[in-house]
């Protein structure tokens, strides 16, 4: 890759990409291919979050063949397997060197403003102090997971009980001895609960409203079926509820040990304690927490989605006359007798809480009016109403595949294409006023 040194930094670039993760690097690949002058500004190191925010036993939940970036696809021996955290880190480490992006690491963008001529100014902090960049266009590729969410009353929990967010969880041994309350059943919460359960820790799990999906169905990975069915390529506006699909939680499943279902009912039958939505803390400094009576409903809804997806796959198989093993449906292996309303963590021996209830975006440094009332950027396929300002790497940016390796290339190509189209007319216009000698000198 091309590391930009202080003495070679230009005062102006056609395009600045903020964020050196897979989305930012994918955009850089297209701009590099098309010869567009640009820079990728990364606060840490390229693709660092895969090593920093994943736990030790993490695996992908999508098959390895989904791992496709522009000009760079998984070509290992197990396309239908699931890379571990360290394997993903190693795979991504080879991406930037494969095409040499103009990458500026350890440099944080602290402010982005629009200039009177329609361009942008970026203020950065890095090893060489505060610097100012000027860009004709900007691609914000920092993702949408910036600030870990915890309930506002969490600081009032008994201080003897350790609290961490899922972003900081590494392994069961990193938590104090004792029982653990995991809050949330999205992909992180469900897999962390499994990690602790398999290690022999007693887990109390507060369920959210996440759905689940079969790992393997009728002889193939369910996500491979869904890809063949075009689900990952369908635009968000075409889904029921339209743009509201962007608020949906991904289905929980795991790629661990070659991949399998995550069945919370089976965990309960083995001793895991399940609860509904965590609602409140009884009193500041205490350890009595209360739950909403939603546990049974959450289990039933997750199973219903599981079976519904299986039904969709059945219809696809039938419509194409595909020879596949027989259809089946999930049958519950455990039913709750009660809906627990509360839990005294200290009395139960709970010594730690893992918050796995997501993140909120933080774009306060983007001082351009492109946000809705929740602080999320308004856009169409990553293109905002401010000419030359784009967002990339967001879940459901355009399709279900947008937040996955499988869909990044398509999103990046679209955004990069818009950026290239704006660069070329400006260059053509500038050259129109040059003499023949000027053009020759400009190259």
Automatic annotation (TrEMBL):
The keyword Electron transport does not apply. It comes from the Bacteria. Keywords: Oxidoreductase. GO terms for molecular function: flavin adenine dinucleotide binding; monooxygenase activity. PANTHER family: FLAVIN-BINDING MONOOXYGENASE-LIKE PROTEIN (AFU_ORTHOLOGUE AFUA_4G09220) (PTHR43539), FLAVIN-CONTAINING MONOOXYGENASE (PTHR43539:SF78). This is MSMEG_0569 family flavin-dependent oxidoreductase. It comes from Nocardioides acrostichi.
């Amino acid at each position: 890759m091309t590391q930009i040194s202080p003495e070679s930094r230009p005062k102006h670039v056609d395009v600045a990409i903020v964020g050196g993760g897979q989305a930012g690097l994918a955009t850089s690949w297209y701009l590099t291919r098309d010869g567009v002058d640009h820079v990728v500004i990364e606060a840490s190191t390229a693709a660092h979050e895969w090593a920093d925010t994943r736990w030790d036993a993490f695996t992908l939940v999508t098959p390895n063949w989904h791992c496709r970036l522009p000009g760079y696809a998984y070509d290992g021996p197990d396309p239908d397997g699931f890379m571990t955290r360290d394997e993903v880190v190693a795979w991504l480490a080879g991406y930037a060197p494969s095409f040499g992006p103009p990458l500026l690491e350890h440099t944080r963008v602290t402010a982005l403003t629009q200039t009177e001529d329609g361009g942008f100014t970026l203020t950065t902090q890095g090893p060489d102090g505060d610097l100012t960049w000027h860009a004709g266009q900007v691609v914000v590729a920092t993702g949408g997971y910036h600030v870990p969410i915890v309930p506002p009353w969490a600081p009032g929990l008994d201080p003897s009980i350790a609290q961490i967010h899922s972003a900081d969880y590494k392994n069961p041994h990193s938590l104090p001895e004792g029982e653990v309350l995991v809050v949330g059943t999205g992909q992180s919460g469900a897999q962390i609960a499994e990690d602790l359960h398999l290690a022999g820790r007693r887990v109390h799990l507060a369920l959210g409203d996440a759905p689940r999906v079969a790992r393997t169905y009728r002889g193939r990975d369910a996500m491979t079926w869904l890809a063949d069915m075009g689900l990952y390529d369908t635009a968000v506006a075409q889904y029921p509820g339209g743009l509201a699909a962007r608020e949906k939680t991904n289905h929980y499943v795991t790629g661990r040990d070659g991949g399998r279902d995550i069945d919370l009912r089976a965990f309960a039958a083995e001793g895991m304690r399940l609860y509904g939505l965590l609602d409140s803390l009884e009193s500041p400094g205490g350890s009595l927490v209360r739950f909403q009576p939603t546990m049974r409903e959450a289990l039933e809804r997750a199973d219903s989605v599981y079976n519904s997806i299986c039904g969709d796959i059945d219809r696809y198989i039938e419509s194409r006359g595909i020879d596949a093993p027989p259809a089946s449906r999930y049958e519950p292996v455990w039913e709750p007798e009660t809906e627990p309303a509360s839990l005294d963590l200290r009395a139960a021996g709970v010594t730690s809480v893992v918050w796995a209830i997501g993140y909120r975006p933080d774009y306060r440094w983007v001082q351009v009016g492109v946000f809705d009332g929740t602080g999320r950027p308004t856009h169409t396929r990553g293109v905002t109403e401010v000419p030359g300002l784009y967002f990339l790497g967001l879940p459901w940016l355009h399709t279900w595949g947008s937040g996955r390796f499988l869909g990044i290339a398509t999103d990046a190509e679209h955004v990069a294409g818009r950026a290239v189209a704006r660069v070329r007319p400006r260059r053509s216009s500038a050259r129109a006023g040059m003499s023949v000698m000027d053009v020759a000198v400009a190259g």
